[in-house]
Specification:
alpha/beta, Alkaline Phosphatase, subunit A, Arylsulfatase, C-terminal domain, 2 domains, ten-stranded mixed beta sheet, four-stranded antiparallel beta sheet, 12 helices, 16 strands, about 30% helix, binds calcium ion
């Protein structure tokens, strides 16, 4: 440590000052983040629907976490949890509709104070301007898949092309020419893909053209033996995908040349669909194939671009002292329970991928089944940088887990709370607790409960909440839920107002 930073640390006595590591030893951090990428579409997790060779490199050369659970399975709230290390009720971002309070404590600000150069490129999705970043180039709102507009501190910039490629171009440009090579950096490289409406890049239009994607066993779930909310949502492949989702018309953001290239591939496909005049389960199966292939094509675009970034880290010599972390803002449904989208505390949307590569520190090809969370990311980034984790952050650094050992006092239960109701897809508000074997969920607006035995019923098809054999479990988990609510300072339930009407303008027959 040089004299000047040491002096500043002494004078300011802030938690943001580095501890004992020298600047030379502090690693760079590259956080690769996607939107809505389920681990079930990542071959490092054993995907049966696709291959992701470049993302897999991070797992092969690092650690795969098998139980990374989000606290609130939706986009903007997950991002706020990651920035603050606090649950939604404390960081204020309960739903997508709110404005993120960028004046509050976030890990990028603390990294900056410790001498890190902080940069975010790609999807931000928090409505307020980014704070705590030396450099930011972010999509406005969701951002389109083609010809996106980027917001920066000084200007806005529209760039022609495919958004996933462009975000990578900008990240590589910053790494090569934008950063201060005398300081460690934190780069948040964040994709819009594979978020709805799943528009692939031209390179991938024909991927999976000649094969069917396997259907999940619960594609035709009837929602029996569960509380009432599961049947009352608006996110069914059979009923709620619209013509844009199903690519029965061209993406709106394309220029003329892009639209012509798109039409060349999709017009014959759509003609064949209309001629087939499908109905009932056959129509649902067609929708599933169309939807999942488009989703997986956008994932392929991410995977190729992650390969470009990893290659740059190698060729530039940065790889050895750079921690590369891959995650997504939550999980996602690829037809499980008949659904697309996220929101639920059920496994598919609760679990998010987490891969970490740190050369020389993490054993290549290792795995961890510790119960970790996006709540832990902020503390982890700070710990990697040698910065003390503020006591009001609610997560815990994952750095000790990188050795392959799980600390004895690591958490054995996880608190979850989803708030966005009434809103799109009409998923009821709920909170709950998950252990490694059971999950208790409370839909508090209806005062209905579910209990799942994850060992016997991993697909969560039968709630045993009312089963006499499980009443000890119910009592114990209610007690644990209450303990977590007190520990995390959760206020009393906030009741929603007004009814929720599912958007039912889906493609129900071949005629529309
Ligand atoms: Ca998301």
């Amino acid at each position: 440590m040089t004299r000047l930073p040491l002096l500043l640390c002494v004078l300011l006595l802030t938690a943001g000052c580095q501890r004992t590591d020298t600047a030379e030893e502090r690693p760079n951090i590259v956080f690769i983040f996607t939107d809505d990428h389920t681990a079930r579409a990542l071959s490092a997790y054993g995907s049966v629907v696709n291959e992701t060779p470049h993302l897999d490199r991070i797992a092969q050369e690092g650690m795969r976490f098998d139980q990374c659970l989000v606290t609130n399975s939706i986009c903007a709230p997950s991002r706020a949890v990651i920035l603050t290390g606090k649950h939604s009720h404390l960081n204020g971002q309960l739903t997508n509709g709110q404005l993120f309070d960028g004046t509050q404590q976030t890990f990028p600000k603390l990294l900056q104070a410790a001498g890190y150069q902080t940069s975010i490129i790609g999807k931000w999705h928090l409505r307020s301007a980014p704070t705590g970043f030396d450099h930011w180039q972010v999509l406005r709102g969701q951002g389109p898949y083609y010809n996106p507009l980027f917001l920066t501190a000084g200007d806005t910039l529209r760039i022609e092309g495919y958004t996933t490629d462009i975000i990578t171009d900008l990240a590589l440009e910053w790494l090569e020419h934008g950063r201060d090579t005398a300081r460690p950096f934190m780069l948040m490289y964040q994709h819009k893909a594979p978020h709805r409406q799943w528009h692939p890049g031209p390179d991938h239009y024909r991927l999976y053209e000649d094969r069917d994607i396997p259907e999940p066993p619960t594609l035709f779930d009837d929602y029996a033996n569960r509380a009432s909310p599961a049947a009352d949502q608006g996110m069914m492949i059979a009923r709620h995908l619209n013509i844009n989702d199903l690519k029965l018309q061209a993406p709106g953001s394309m220029n003329e040349a892009q639209a012509a290239a798109w039409e060349e591939v999709y017009a014959p496909r759509n003609e064949a669909f209309h001629e087939a005049d499908l109905e009932g389960d056959d129509l649902t199966r067609w929708k599933y194939q169309r939807y999942v292939k488009e989703y997986l094509r956008t994932v392929a675009g991410v995977d190729d671009n992650v390969g470009r970034l990893l290659d740059y880290l190698e060729s530039s010599g940065l790889a050895d002292n750079t921690v590369v972390i891959y995650s997504s803002d939550q999980g996602w449904y690829l037809g499980e329970h008949g659904w697309y989208d996220k929101r639920w505390m059920y496994e598919e949307s609760l679990v998010t991928p987490l891969l970490v590569r740190w050369p020389g520190k993490i054993t290549p090809g290792s795995t961890s089944d510790a119960m970790v969370s996006n709540l832990d990311f902020a503390a982890t980034f700070l710990d990697l940088a040698g910065v003390d984790v503020p006591v009001d952050m609610q997560g815990r650094s994952l750095k000790p887990l990188f050795t392959g050992e799980t600390p004895e006092d690591w958490r054995t239960s996880h608190y979850y709370h989803y708030y966005e109701y009434p809103s799109v897809h009409c998923v009821e508000r709920h909170y709950g607790v998950r252990t490694s074997t059971h999950k208790l969920i409370h839909y508090y607006n209806r005062d209905e409960w579910e209990l799942f035995d994850l060992t016997r019923d991993p697909m969560e098809l039968r709630s045993v909440y009312d089963d006499p054999a499980y009443q000890d479990q119910v009592a114990a988990l209610k007690e644990e839920l209450q303990r977590l609510r007190v520990q995390y300072q959760v206020p009393e339930d906030e009741r929603p107002t007004g009814p929720c009407i599912p958007d039912n303008r889906g493609v129900n027959t071949a005629a529309n």
